[in-house]
Amino acid sequence: xxxxxxxxxxxxxxxxxxxxxxxxxxxxxxxxxxxxxxxxxxxxxxxxxxxxxxxxxxxxxxxxxxxxxxxxxxxxxxxxxxxxxxxxxxxxxxxxxxxxxxxxxxxxxxxxxxxxxxxxxxxxxxxxxxxxxxxxxxxxxxxxxxxxxxxxxxxxxxxxxxxxxxxxxxxxxxxxxxxxxxxxxxxxxxxxxxxxxxxxxxxxxxxxxxxxxxxxxxxxxxx
Length: 223
Hints:
Shape: globular
Mean pLDDT: 85
Number of helices: 5
Strand order of the largest sheet: 3-4-5-8
CATH architecture of the largest domain: 3-Layer(aba) Sandwich
Radius of gyration: 17 Å
Low-confidence stretches: 165-179, 212-219
CATH class of the largest domain: Alpha Beta
Number of strands: 8
Helix content: 40-55%
CATH topology of the largest domain: Rossmann fold
Structural class: alpha/beta
Distance between the termini: 32 Å
Order of helices and strands: EHEHEHEHEEEHE
Strand content: 5-15%
């Protein structure tokens, strides 16, 4: 049983129905996670619906492909608000609930290989992802006394619906671009491990594929 959020509540509902069709039990919610009231509300809605909270996954994020001279202040502020504020305040709300209930909970951030590798025109995005891993390391120390683990997953390019269109809006062929080496299932497998009892003693870590210095393309698994 789980709950999920999207800025567009209709899209959240669509995703929830797809999961329900596979046998899952999901509560869909809409809202901007950059607002702490929304993240607190997500935690409380999950507890009200399912009776408890065992894990929180902060995976909301936006990206930006711009050269430094063209970077607008408003765009940077929005990037920081979603990628960092949203993740921080979800972790804060979840940690409070874990401590109140005496739950040995799990907090997981979705980072990116861009937090480790320099990629052209992705400095702002990479900066936020590196910050999430620093946050995971620091919170892991703070939360250890309560049995709460804090980790991150840092995939490379991943085939998702957001990548189903090219930059000019045209649909590409069925085969994903060669730079896309991960499937959503690859990322989900890493996340499920870090959220499981098997990872009870794994904290402050980042699980990702292809961090090798100088590699132009990050791959999540061998092909």
